[in-house]
Amino acid sequence: MSSGSHSAILIELKKKTYLVTGASGFIGRALVDRLRLEGHDVRRAVRRMVPGAFNVQCPLGASVDAWHDALEGVDGVFHLAWSTVPKTADRLPLDDVTTNVVGTLGLLEALRRRPGLPMVFASSGGTVYGAPETTPVSEAHPLRPLGLYGASKVSAEVYAMLYRRQFGVDARILRISNPYGPGQNVEGQLGAASIFAWRALTGHEIRIWGDGSIVRDYLYIDDVVSAFSAAIKVDPDAFGSSEPILNIGSGHGTSLKQIVETISDILGRPIRVEYESSRYFDVPVNVLEVSRAEQLLGWTATTGLRDGMSKMLDHFSKQLVSQVQLT
């Protein structure tokens, strides 16, 4: 057998099919691209059918039977779909629970019928802990969310771990810090690092609630999807008797002011900033302890804030040039 044929067989053996919910979101799109780059097939669970060979109509509110059908022939599930952000969850709590928590429960019930199929759930390292008692925040920290978004994420986690213990569902949870990078919605309500970079590059002033001293753990999108890829591949026995709940972050804190200073330094010019009254739900510091992910997944963040911001600003600059050329 030639070395070329041997390599082709190895690639074929490693090729898998994954179902991704929330595939049209910021992390979802990047994850789909990464999985396909690794040679896998990706089935996207979508709310409405759109042209695409690997799309399946299966919104969060789908029936258990619909979920069960969507899982046919897949080797693992990435559950990223979530219909709210903190602000909308507080405004529409019943919709948040009905769509997200009950929807996740439907997926778990379908997974109960397919034992051994791993599912990685995207939880929130920024909201489930509430106001940290100590930093960095480990996975053992009490869960005391300050808002309904965090409460719903905690509820989904509790159900996932219950289904793991009681029904053998191979659920795994990643508590993601603050992701940023190309592809994030810069007109949205989440992603200070991305929003700040875009507004600074386009000459708009940046709005900061509070005095800019709030510290968060910012994680570049490439590192985020690497963590998901590592989490689905790890052997179930790697977790032993402990629950597979892992913080995913850089492990380093950065204030809002430091983000602005970094962008200003990269662009080589000052940036206009408008400060507004602080918000009750913004805890002063949230930095994740990430050694468990390194130990169990062999994963660690590799992109520092300055490098990540430089990559993002370069991407945005090229995007602006393309927009000008199109007009």
TrEMBL record:
The keyword Ribosomal protein does not apply. GO terms for molecular function: UDP-glucose 4-epimerase activity. Keywords: Isomerase. It comes from the Bacteria. It is an enzyme of class 5 (isomerase). SUPFAM superfamilies: NAD(P)-binding Rossmann-fold domains (SSF51735). Pathway: Bacterial outer membrane biogenesis; LPS O-antigen biosynthesis. InterPro entries: Epimerase_deHydtase, NAD(P)-bd_dom_sf. Pfam families: Epimerase. Its EC number is 5.1.3.2. Residues 19-234 form the NAD-dependent epimerase/dehydratase domain. Belongs to the NAD(P)-dependent epimerase/dehydratase family. PANTHER family: DTDP-D-GLUCOSE 4,6-DEHYDRATASE-RELATED. This is UDP-glucose 4-epimerase. It comes from Paraburkholderia terricola.
